[in-house]
Amino acid sequence: MWQELREELVPQGVEVLTVALDSGGAEAAGPFIDAANPRHPSLIDATHRLDELLGINNVPMGVWIDEQGTLVRPPEIAHPGTSVLRDMLAEHGVPQDAPPLLLETLAEAAKIRVDPERYGAALRDWARRGGESPYALSPDEVVERSRPRPPELSEAAAHFELGVHLRAEGDVDAAREHFRAAHRLDPGNWTYKRQAWSLEDPLQGPTEYYEGDWLKDVRASGAEHYYPRPDL
Amino acid sequence: MILTAPEIDPGAFAEHTGWEIKPEGACKADRCVPLPGAPEEGPVPAALLAEPLGMALVHDAPRALWALGPESGGRALLSAQMPELELPDRHGRPFSLGSLRGTRVVMVAWASW
Fold this sequence. Notes:
The complex is a heterodimer of chains A (232) and B (113).
Chain A: H1 2-9, E1 14-21, H2 25-36, E2 42-45, H3 49-54, E3 61-65, E4 71-77, H4 84-92, H5 100-109, H6 116-129, H7 139-145, E5 148-149, H8 151-169, H9 172-185, H10 190-198, H11 214-221
Parallel strand pairs in A: 1-2
Antiparallel strand pairs in A: 3-4
Helix pairs in contact in A: 8-9
Chain B: E1 2-3, E2 7-8, H1 10-17, E3 20-22, E4 25-28, E5 31-33, E6 44-45, H2 46-53, E7 57-60, E8 65-68, E9 74-75, E10 86-88, E11 94-96, E12 104-110
Antiparallel strand pairs in B: 1-8, 2-6, 3-4, 4-5, 7-8, 10-11
């Protein structure tokens, strides 16, 4: 998806850079990168540095950076073109012989609202017009539109980082304690939740270790709120 | 930022958080926060940085680890300057985000999960 768009953007002076937020590092993200075989830089952030530095709390989220290294858009949901999952479901429907949890998860995922055409159009406008694009924000607007960070979110980030660190060290139980604390302190952070859940179950279903799971939490918050509409 | 002792090397702190420790305090972008009681050189007690900067200091006593969260009390971004960061590609080769300076970039975070 990004690969195709990149070929269109590069001649206009915009490079694509993708970063996988994956505590499993190359082992987890590598096969996906190999399959996509991107020509653009494709990096791996195994300790979720971007979450903390920019306030990223879901994926996919994107930022736009100008030639001077200044952000002209803060982190926001970034679907550039079509939605792969949505297109697959529209074309093939939900496979009826799939496990019940997968069926329910796909049905819920289909309710998630994305607006790829709008985001793609804004990105193309910026590629064409640069700083003259109305979608390129001033530094003050970028800061103002970034996520609020009250003290409990700093505490959540510290717990999440300990969780990732301890998991990498092999102390799985201790990691779960810190992941649970991060989830409690920053309940709207899908990155913290999904990273931890996925380490127990690829479908992010219910486990004895966490109060929430993908289906339960998406239903509780409403699928329509899963991806906040970019303020374009 | 993971710590194995409740003190921080100023160089490592600057590299990880972008906050530089100067005589006038901890400084990032156009903001300087006084650090009363901070030593003029050498490691700084984590607690001396945590409170003035709104950084949570979480202690995991059984594992003798500390983690210092990011600054809080405002927005996730203190300035619109993209922080310096080096990350590996899938073969472990380091890539500096700053190497793309001079080109516009759309950076997208995704995940395998």
